[in-house]
Amino acid sequence: MSELLNTLIQDARVWQGNRHTPARQPAEPTGYQVLDNHLGGLGWPRGALSECLLEAPGIGELQLVLPLMRRTTHAGKTVFWLNPPHTPYAPALAREGVDLEQVVMVRTEDNGDLLWTLENCLRSPVTGLVLAWPGKLAARDVRRLQLAAEAGSNVCILFRSHKQAEQSSPAALRLELDAGKHQELRVHVLKRRGSWPGQRCTIAMANRSFAEPGPVVQGPWTGLDG
Question: What DSSP character marks residue 217?
């Protein structure tokens, strides 16, 4: 029993209130050093869910994931957008160095269709990053998506209402986002693996707009599990 407990503690799967345990889980840097420092020097966890909780879209949340989008597409992996509130503006993404051939946008008709699509994207070997705007999710649905994320070892970021901040979630990382002054984004770490939540930082944002009127960004579906 003691050997099992030691293993869990070393792997940062048991939270200890009196000590910081560096998580050994794989992760992708956010591209913002100030935020990575607050995330234990890691970033977006792979093989797990992350949640960005915000009051309304368009406050700079896409700029927050832009460095990861750029790295993922340049590595030849697909970035899936599921039910974004606005159609991505391809020229803006291209200007920021995102390879549009590796970007796919998907619209679903109902919650069941969304969950099926999310699961398949997360499990697919072509996937590198999944960005999804799921609306309301039951706790069992989030657990179901967590299992799919573990199976695919990809990064999955769910953009949800800030009203969900008070509800428990199996997501490995939960960030509450708020628009600051002078094109800044305030980030409050609600939950992260291996240490205390509660850290706050402010990130300067450049051009925020990826939702201008324009063509739908599309890309390859090859290799997506059915």
Answer: P
Provide the number of structural domains found in the chain.
Answer: 1
The span from the CA of 174 to the CA of 16, in Å, is 18
pLDDT, tens digit, 9 for 90 and up, residues 183-212: 789 999 998 876 566 678 888 776 555 655
Q: Indicate the burial class of 13 (C-beta count within 10 angstroms; 0-12, 13-18, 19 or more).
A: middle
**Secondary structure class of 122 (helix, strand, coil):** helix
Residue 225, domain member (yes or no): no
Structure tokens at 105: 């946008």
Give CA–CA dist 157/101, Å, rounded: 20
| Digit-coded pLDDT (tens) for 48-93 | 999 999 988 888 899 999 999 999 999 999 999 999 988 888 888 9
Residue at 226 is within a domain: no
* Global confidence as pTM: 0.81
Q: Within 13 A of 123's CA, how many CA atoms are on the CB side?
A: 14
CA dist., res. 179 & res. 183, Å (int)? 8
How many other C-beta atoms are found inside a 10 Å radius of the C-beta of residue 226?
A: 6
Tell me if 114 is assigned to some domain. Answer: yes
| Angle ∠(185,188,189) on CA atoms, nearest 5 | 130
| Residues composing the chain | 226
* Residue listed under structure tokens 């800030």: 162
Cβ(185)–Cβ(205) below 8 Å: yes
